[in-house]
Structure formats: C-alpha cells, structure tokens
Inverse folding.
C-alpha cells in the first residue's frame, strides 16, 4: 500500500502542477472551442468529418463521440508539447535526487509520469466531449444521450493515440539531444510522416471485405475508414463511398446531407488492435527505466557548460564586435552575438553552408525553401529568446539595473534580426539583383520572426509554443503557402508581416515587462 501511495502522490502532484499552468487551460479552451465548431448546423457552409465532401453523420451520441475522437488527432500533436518536460524538470530541480533515496522503483516513477501525462490529456479530451454533448442537445437532431456510445470512440481510438504521445514525451525527455528544440521539431516531422503513412492503409481499409483491420494505425483513422465502409456505404444510393474523409469541408447548401450513425459497430480484431497500441505504449514506458539514471546524469553536463559560457574561440568575431562596445546597448548586442555564434556546433556551420549555397545557386523555388531552412537553423535561439535569463537563472542580476529590461529586449531583437538576415546573405544578394521584392520580403520576415519569438516566449513562458508554430508554418512553406515562402507572392508576404509586426512588438514589450519583474 505504501508503494501505491507514493505512486499516486507523484501522479497527483504532477497533475496539480499541470492544471495550475496557463497553457493547460489555453489548450483546454482551444479544444473545447474546436469541439463546438465541429458540429455546425445544416444551414452553415461547412461540415466536419465530411464524407464524400458533403455528407456527415446525424448528431447522435455515437457520432458526437466519433468526431471528438478524430479531433483528438490534433490533440496527439499539441498534447506532446503540453505534457513534455516533466522528467527534465525533476532532473533540473533535483527532485529526482530526492526520489532516488526512496523505495520507489525506476519503472514505477516513469509509469507515474506517463499516467500523469495521460491524465492531463484525458481531461482535455473530456472537456471536448462535454462540449460535444452540449452541442448535441442544442442542435437537437438526436436528443437521446447514450454515454456508452459517446465514450467508445474516445476509449478505443483516442486513448491509444494519446498513450503513444505520452510515451514519446517521456522518451524525448530521456534522450539529451531531444530535450529541447531538436526534439520539438523531430516530433512534428514524425507526426506528419505518420499521417502520410496512414493513407495507403486507409485505401486498403476502404477496399477490405470481411474482418476489419486488426492493427490499423495509432490514431484509429484506418479503423474509422473501415467503419465507414461497413456502416455508411450501404446507406448511399446515388453515389459510391470515396476513400478518406475531410476534417473540414466547405459545402454548398443544396449538396449537404447526412446519414444515420446510431452506434459504432466494433468486432474483436478491431478491439484487439486498439488494445495492442495501448499495451505497446505501456511496455515502452517500462523499457525506458534502465536509461533513467543515465539521463539524469547527462542533465548536469549542459548545465555546467551553460554556466561556464564555454564555446569556440572566434577572434575575428571579437574584432568585428569591438566597435559596438562603446555603448551599453552595443555591448549587449556584441555579447548576445558572441554567445550565440560561439556555441554553434560544427554540424550547424555545415548546414548553414548548404542552405546559404542553395539560396545563392538553386532554382528559385528551392532557393526560397533554403531561406526557410536557414531560419530553421536559428529556431533554438528564437525559441529561447525571451527565456534565456530564466533558463540560466540570471534574471535577478541582469534586470536589476535601471532600464536593463528594455535594453536586453532591444539587443536580443537586434541580434536575431541581424542573424536572420546574415544567414540568408547570399540569397539577399541574389534576389536583390534580380527580384528586389523577394529580397525585401526576406528582410521583413527576418525582422518579424524575432519579434514574434520574443512576444510568444514572454507571453507563454515556454519555447515550445513558438517552435510548434514555426514547424507548422515551415510545413506550409513546403506546400507553397506564402507566409514564410518568399517566392510565392513576396508582396503579400511582406504586407502580412509588416501589418502584424506592430502587434508582435506590442505583445513583446508588455509581456517582457511582466517577465523581467519576476
């Protein structure tokens, strides 16, 4: 019983800590809003979880639960950034050293952390389900409340997916180089890749006859596709069921229709497949236990290196920075620039050489992506821009001087703007000679990115929000969306960032005052 009490104490303490944070309630509010807007009336010009581009299920408890379960696909992404970091926090605050002295086993500790992650994500999911029930009552298409059918999709589709997200949050905390920016970017890439890998399986599920796909995919999208074939296809008289479904479909009023979904029909292989993913996540947690002590020891090394300010010697940089050191602001700019460049590893310089060369020599579409790649190499600095003093615990010392907060803010923006332009200097020279509007767009985005990184970092108090947004917009740039891709419509890109830049500056300045006074 004592071991159970210790286990429950860790889960409870973690859960209370998470629920006190602003980001938990922000994510909860966002998912609840998304849940409400996922149930539009028949008069509105869109459907959520649309079939054949214009069909949706009648708002029964079973369909409400299925929509929320598919909405949890996004929670499996955002939830990772919400729950990760709890193990690293124990390492850095030396709580782990206290826990080592107790009879609590390594496996039990990690399992408690995983359970607390699951509790947080389950609470967010429960909030979305509650909003779904309210939408069912308000829309009035089917007023019969069936709690079993409501929660079945969440239990069998969403929970295994969130279990794997919770596992990866722990794994990324245990691997030193995945604890910060690299891990945040890698998880986003893995999440996108896993969605792409689901498409062939959904095609197979759509053509399958007989038993359903027993294994499916972690998020249950193949299982849902098979359920559509089994439950919806027989209801369609004038059209065939297409493979796939859209999360949000724009629909014209005369084409909108709905089908009956009174229950979600399951079979034994389908249930076994969902339990497999849940057991896989649980087993993965237990397999991580032998690496826990090594991970805790590795956490001390970066702290020591950061405290010493060590880095490579760059005499040319010292020479170039010496004229700046005649003023307080110039001294801060020089120090920030030296700190950033001296601690860049060798692979970073090689990657910068590649992106800079591509920006100069590659065809224009590839050169524009190389520009985005150069900014991506600064993502760790963008993410930590507003949080450096808190991370190094030097805030009380640095901000004690009169006006130091404003000077540090201005110096940090200046350095990041200069770096954002310098890493793309070859592309600026190329486009400046051939496409001046594109070169101007690069400079404006280079000014906008550090402003937004400072604003979001100071507002949220963590780097993960900006890093996730950067990953999303980077992915959109690959898909030729012009927010960061300066080759698509440089005039529009420049205009958007110029209009939004004052907003970023205002948010950064207001949030920075609060951050510097802590």
């Amino acid at each position: 019983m004592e071991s159970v009490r210790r286990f429950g104490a860790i889960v409870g303490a973690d859960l209370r800590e998470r629920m006190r944070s602003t980001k938990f309630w922000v994510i909860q509010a966002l998912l609840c809003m998304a849940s409400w807007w996922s149930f539009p009336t028949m008069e509105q010009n869109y459907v959520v979880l649309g079939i054949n581009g214009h069909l949706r299920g009648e708002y029964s408890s079973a369909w409400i639960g299925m929509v929320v379960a598919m909405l949890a696909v996004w929670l499996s992404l955002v939830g990772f950034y919400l729950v990760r970091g709890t193990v690293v926090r124990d390492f850095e605050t030396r709580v782990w050293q206290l826990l080592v002295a107790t009879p609590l086993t390594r496996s039990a500790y990690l399992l408690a952390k995983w359970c607390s992650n699951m509790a947080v994500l389950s609470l967010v999911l429960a909030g979305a389900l509650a909003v779904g029930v309210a939408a069912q009552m308000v829309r009035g298409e089917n007023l019969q409340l069936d709690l079993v059918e409501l929660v079945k999709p969440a239990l069998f589709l969403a929970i295994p997916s969130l279990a794997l997200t919770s596992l990866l949050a722990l794994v990324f905390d245990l691997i030193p180089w995945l604890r910060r920016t690299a891990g945040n970017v890698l998880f986003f890439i893995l999440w996108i890749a896993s969605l792409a890998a689901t498409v062939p399986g959904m095609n197979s599920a759509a053509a399958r006859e007989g038993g359903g796909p027993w294994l499916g995919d972690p998020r249950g999208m193949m299982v849902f596709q098979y359920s559509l074939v089994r439950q919806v296809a027989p209801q369609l008289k004038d059209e065939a069921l297409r493979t796939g479904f859209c999360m949000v479909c724009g629909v014209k009023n005369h084409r909108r229709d709905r089908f009956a979904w009174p229950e979600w029909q399951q079979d034994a292989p389908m249930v076994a497949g969902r339990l497999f993913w849940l057991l896989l996540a649980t087993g993965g947690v237990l397999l991580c236990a032998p690496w826990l002590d090594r991970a805790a020891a590795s956490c001390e090394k970066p702290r020591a290196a950061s405290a010493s300010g060590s880095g490579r010697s760059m005499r040319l940089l010292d020479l170039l920075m010496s004229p700046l050191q005649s003023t307080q602001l110039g001294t801060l700019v020089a120090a920030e620039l030296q700190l950033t460049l001296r601690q860049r590893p060798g692979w970073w310089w090689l990657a910068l050489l590649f992106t800079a060369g591509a920006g100069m020599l590659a065809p224009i579409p590839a050169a524009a992506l190389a520009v985005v790649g150069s900014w991506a190499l600064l993502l760790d600095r963008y993410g930590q821009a507003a949080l450096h003093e808190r991370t190094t615990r030097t805030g009380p010392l640095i901000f004690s001087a009169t006006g130091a907060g404003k000077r540090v803010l201005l110096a940090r923006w200046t350095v990041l703007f200069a770096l954002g332009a310098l890493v793309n200097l070859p592309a600026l020279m190329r486009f400046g000679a051939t496409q001046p509007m594109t070169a101007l767009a690069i400079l404006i985005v280079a000014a906008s990115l550090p402003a937004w990184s400072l604003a979001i970092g100071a507002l949220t108090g963590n780097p993960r929000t900006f890093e996730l947004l950067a990953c999303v917009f980077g992915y959109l740039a690959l898909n030729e969306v012009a927010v960061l891709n300066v080759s698509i419509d440089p005039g529009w890109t420049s205009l958007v960032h110029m209009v939004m830049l004052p907003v970023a500056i205002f948010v950064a300045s207001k949030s920075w005052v609060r951050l510097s006074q802590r």
The chain has a mean pLDDT of 87.
